[in-house]
Amino acid sequence: MKEKSFIQQFGWPRIIIALFLVALLIATPAANLKFDSSLANVFSRFGMFSILTLSMIPMIQAGCGLNFGLPVGVIAGILGGVTSIEFGFKGMAGIFMAVILAVIFATIFGFLYGLLLNKIKGDEMLIATYVGYSFVAFMSIMWLVLPYKNPVSVLSYGGKGLSQQIPVSDYWMTKVVNPDGTSAFIGIVSKFLSIKISSGFTLMTGMFLFFAVMAFLVWAFFKTKLGSAITAVGSNPEYAKAAGINIDKMRIIAVIMSTIIASIGILIYQQSYGYIQLYMAPQTFTFQTVAAILIGGASVNKASILNVIIGTFLFQGILTLTPIVINGIIGVDVSEVIRIIVTNGMIVYALTRRTK
């Protein structure tokens, strides 16, 4: 009975994905890959995407559905990062300044985004998708006309307009010399209190600690009176209205909160990745975060921290290992096909099984 209860709670899709992930890890030697390096890549990807996935919770809890308008928060974070680099802030001070600026931009964008979603209740996910696409397209124009001058950021041949990718190695990363004499750059947040477990596996503790703090703040927020009101709005709007809760206000607060968390999450991703990606790049994060939280067990109106942890680890683990393991074994590049099947397949599966 206990086994049956576990299967019902965890769900067959997540069990199958978890078993597939374990099988990929076991198969790494057959693909001429190191087990510890492969596992390190999975943990690294989890740290990079976990906060972006966490940003889904407030909007889901408020009844606004899955945040397909994630690029709004991502662009706020990019603006904060680019502006911090423009003024020459480096190290932890640079990350801190980028976060502060990102929160300011995200608050403004989130407020306007929330006002829009309040006008189209019931169709939030549909409209949010178009908001994401249109805002990314609009900012693709703005990146060319905004008055940034830092040589690291602007296009070298014109001296005006921002580059497709802006390196952050001199601002948010630190240089590490490997035992074999080679060197690499590691994000300063990622490297904080890092633990070297083996020659191929260094646990980037900083990203996990940052995620833990953010997750705790989100959990604690939803234990407050305001957080409970937001949850009530998402669970039963009629009851919330009868209780005197301002539904539109609660929804706007949730959208702002989601946008702020997404803006911080993209900064953690960028300091680990090594580049700030502009133009159409923000759109690529949407389906990965949506798929991750759905795989973790969230529905369109209920999500938890546990859903974020499970979903991000499973989804990013599959996306990280599947291409390199299968390519190594069969010698055929099917990475993009697998990514499309996993991402869109799990979204379709979850959205066709809405739960209250």
**How many beta-strand runs?**
6
**Ends apart, CA distance between termini:** 25 Å
CATH class: Mainly Alpha
**How would the global form be characterised?**
globular
Organism: Criibacterium bergeronii
Subcellular location: Cell membrane
Protein name: ABC transporter permease
GO molecular function: transmembrane transporter activity
What report would you give on this structure?
By secondary structure, the chain is mainly alpha-helical. It has one domain: ABC transporter involved in vitamin B12 uptake, BtuC (Orthogonal Bundle), CATH 1.10.3470. It has 15 helices and six strands. The chain has helices at residues 2-10, 12-27, 35-54, 56-61, 70-86, 91-119, 124-145, 188-191, 205-221, 225-235, 237-242, 247-273, 286-295, 305-330, 335-351, and strands at 165-167, 173-177, 183-187, 195-198, 201-203, 275-277. The strands form three sheets. The chain has a two-stranded antiparallel sheet with strand order 1-6. A two-stranded antiparallel ribbon has the order 2-3. A two-stranded antiparallel sheet has the order 4-5. β4 and β5 form a beta hairpin. Keywords: Cell membrane, Membrane, Transmembrane, Transmembrane helix. This is ABC transporter permease.
What is this structure's SSE topology?
Elements: H1 2-10, H2 12-27, H3 35-54, H4 56-61, H5 70-86, H6 91-119, H7 124-145, E1 165-167, E2 173-177, E3 183-187, H8 188-191, E4 195-198, E5 201-203, H9 205-221, H10 225-235, H11 237-242, H12 247-273, E6 275-277, H13 286-295, H14 305-330, H15 335-351
Antiparallel strand pairs: 1-6, 2-3, 4-5
